[in-house]
Every structure is written in structure tokens, then in C-alpha cells.
Amino acid sequence: MTLRKLTAYKAQEASRKQAQLAMFRKQPNMQGVVIPNVTHYVFLSAESEIVSLSTRFVNGLRAR
User: What is the pTM of this model?
Assistant: First the structure.
């Protein structure tokens, strides 16, 4: 990868992360989680963390 492409990629990645953080800040009741270095198939590349986060979410729901 050339230096120019690497620089462009890093700038694009930083921009994407800033957009995600801005979205999180607009939702006061939302809890966002950033899991670094995962693939598009996050449930496969970070399975144990996804199961843990999902379990914590479900256990935190109030019964209606």
C-alpha cells in the first residue's frame, strides 16, 4: 500500500469513527459499544463479547 493510500485510509477511518461518536452523543439513552478489529461478521469475529453484551442487555430490560 502506498503512503498516499494509507494516509487516505486512515483519514477515512477517523472520519467514520467521528460520525459514529456523533450519533452516539445524539441519543442520550443509548449505550454504544465500540469493538475494535472486528470484521463485518462481528458475531463471528468477537463471539464471546457479543454474547456477553447481549446477555447484559437482555438482563437489564424491565419486565412489562
Answer: 0.53
